[in-house]
Predict the 3D structure of the following.
Amino acid sequence: MKIEEMEVKDLNPQRFIEEKIAEIASLAGTGLAVNALSGGVDSSTVTMLGHKALGNRLKTYFIDHGLMREDEPETIVSLFKELGVLVELVDARTEFFNALKGVTDPEEKREAITQAFYKDVFGRLVKESNATHLLQGTNYTDIEETVAGVKRQHNILEQIGIDTQEQYGYKVIEPLIQLRKPAVREVAKVLGLSEEIYNRPPFPGPALAARVIGEVTPERVETVRKATRIVEEELLHTGAFQYLAILHKDKVTGVRNGKRDYGFQIEVRCWDSEDAKTGSPTRLPYDILEKLAERITTEVPGVVSVTYNITKKPPSTIEAV
Ligand code: XMP
C-alpha cells in the first residue's frame, strides 16, 4: 500500500487528532492494546492519542533496555504521571545486552534490537496482558529511509514485508505514518504535551546503541552515556536540530601526567537539518568545541581524544550506526 505524506501546510492538527482517535478505536475493536513510550515526540504523541481512543484498554510501557540516556526512564515515567498516564517501567536490560553480545555490524545490531524488542520483550508483554495490538509512532521518514535501503529503522515491520501477527502474535497500529517530525510536533502541541516533549530533539529507536561503533556492552554504553550528557548540556542553546556523541571502536595513544594513556575516542556531531533527510554540521564556535574536548576528556573515564564531524548528510548519516 502506497503511503501518502501529509505535509505541515496540509495538516489540520485538531481534525487529524479526531480522525486518528476514531481510527485507533475502530482498529483495536474491543481488544486490548499495548505501546512503548520512549519520551520522544513520536511515541509521546501516540501514547496520548491511544489513551484518548482506548482509555484503560491501552497499557503503556517504558522499556528500559539499558541503552537510554542518564535518568531517562524515571524522568519520562514521572512526566506522564503528571499528565494522568500510568506508565509501567520494564527492566529488559539483560534481554537486550544478551541480544547485542558479539554483534558489531550496524545492520545486524539494528536487527538484534528489533528482535529483542518485538519478539522477546513485546511478545512476552502481549502474552501476559492478552493484548491484540501494538500501537507505535512510526513516521514517514522512518519508512522512507528503510525502504530506500539507507538504514533499517528498528520500528519498520509491515513495510518491509514482516507479518507481525504471524511472527510476533499481534497487529501493529501506526497513526503517524503520514507525518514527518515537524507535523508530529504540531499534533503533539495541540494534544497538550509540554514543550519539553513537543520540541524534544530526535533520539533514535536503537538509542545509544546507534552511537557505539563496534560491540555494544554495558561498559561501552556507559562511556557514550556520560559523553552524551556533556554534549547535550553544552549544545542545548545552539538551536541545532540534533547533537550527539559517538564512541569509536579503535583506541588511540594519548598522554596523561607525562605517561602513555591508550584510550577511547569520542566523536561529536551537531546537525542543522529540517527533517533529518539531509543535514549539515553546525558551525559551532571554537570555544564551545574546546570546552567539549576539555570536559569529555576530564569527566569521561578513559577518553583521550575528541573530534568534531564536519561531514554533511549525505554522504554521512545523522547517527553512526
Ligand atoms: P540517520 O542516522 O538515518 O537518522 O541519518 C535520521 C534520523 O532518524 C533518527 N533515527 C531513528 N529513529 N528509529 C527511529 O525512530 C531508528 O531506528 C532510527 N535511526 C535513526 C536519527 O536520530 C535522526 O534523527
User: Anything to note?
Assistant: The mean pLDDT is 95. The longest helix spans residues 106-129. The beta strands are 33-36, 58-64, 87-91, 133-135, 171-173, 242-247, 252-256, 259-272, 280-281, 303-308.
